[in-house]
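$ ./design --mode recover --in tokens.txt
reading tokens...
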């Protein structure tokens, strides 16, 4: 670990040509020396989540059957969990674990939530669906503050409000929202379901870890919830193959494997952070906003996208969210 005290010992001469670059480098080193392992895990978690978005974006280009890829993704998550642990983590004894019923519940929510999200996207497009999904942090934050007595102060409230603004503004395209009012009147409940299910999934994961039902981010719990989702999804997929509604293609298997590797770690690392004592009212706003900011940066650099004025304001709101919530515990 770099010792920040040693970095500060010998300041460069103000008249030196290297004063500014040296001071900048030393400042970066001091900041890096203060990054805790948990912050590093958070950064890795954000990277894996952004990677998921990239993979989903490539699905359209390669005409991947998303449902089949999702099922193979869940099967891959089970395999990755077993490899990380060095053995298959589930046995008959797992039924007696406190987390077991929650893993079944989450597995059902994972596969049903995906289908509902897919229908929401078909009915309202990506923008409204993404806003409904990400805004679920309101449920998560409210629950953790009320039921886990997490601290609330002015900075945290401003940070949470900044997160909400960032989610809305970054997802709104330059031409604004194009809402089909006929579809809205007919399928408005899909937006509500997407919002509620996303919140329930996050809340359940937080609850299981915060209540110590899954001690130290138990891989068995992670594998069990993905296993249940894989089981339910496989039944639907096999029936669809038999009836001819779906066609087996190896590209869907490959797409699922590519998605499953980072997807396993998005849940596992989140549990690690909660197990380390991160408050739900802190981790979920920061995580959601960081994923959005990471996606925006990726769009600007890799996909040559341009942000509108409103999206830039949303980007700044996202930065403000992270800063305010980080300072709320100071």
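writing sequence...
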């Amino acid at each position: 670990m770099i010792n920040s005290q040693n970095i500060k010992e010998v300041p460069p001469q103000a008249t030196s040509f290297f004063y500014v670059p040296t001071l900048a480098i030393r400042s970066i080193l001091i900041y890096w020396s203060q990054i805790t392992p948990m912050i590093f895990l958070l950064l890795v978690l954000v990277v894996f989540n952004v990677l998921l978005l990239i993979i989903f974006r490539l699905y359209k280009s390669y005409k991947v059957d998303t449902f089949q890829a999702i099922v193979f993704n869940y099967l891959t998550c089970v395999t990755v969990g077993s490899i990380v642990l060095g053995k298959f983590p589930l046995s008959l004894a797992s039924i007696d674990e406190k987390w077991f019923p929650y893993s079944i519940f989450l597995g059902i929510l994972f596969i049903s939530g995906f289908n509902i999200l897919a229908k929401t996207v078909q009915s309202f497009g990506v923008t409204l669906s993404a806003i409904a999904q990400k805004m679920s942090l309101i449920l998560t934050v409210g629950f953790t503050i009320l039921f886990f007595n997490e601290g609330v102060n002015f900075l945290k409230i401003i940070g949470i409000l900044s997160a909400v603004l960032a989610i809305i503004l970054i997802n709104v395209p330059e031409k604004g929202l194009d809402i089909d009012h006929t579809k809205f009147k007919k399928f408005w409940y899909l937006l509500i379901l997407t919002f509620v299910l996303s919140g329930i999934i996050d809340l359940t994961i937080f609850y299981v870890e915060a209540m110590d039902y899954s001690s130290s981010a138990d891989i068995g719990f992670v594998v069990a919830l993905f296993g249940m989702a894989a089981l339910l999804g496989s039944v639907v997929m096999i029936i669809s193959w038999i009836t001819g509604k779906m066609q087996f293609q190896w590209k869907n298997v490959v797409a699922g494997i590519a998605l499953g590797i980072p997807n396993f770690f998005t849940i596992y690392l989140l549990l690690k952070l909660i197990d380390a004592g991160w408050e739900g009212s802190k981790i979920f706003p920061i995580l959601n906003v960081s994923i959005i900011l990471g996606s925006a940066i990726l769009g600007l650099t890799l996909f040559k996208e341009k942000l509108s004025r409103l999206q830039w304001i949303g980007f700044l709101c996202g930065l403000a969210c992270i800063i305010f919530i980080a300072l709320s515990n100071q």
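exit 0
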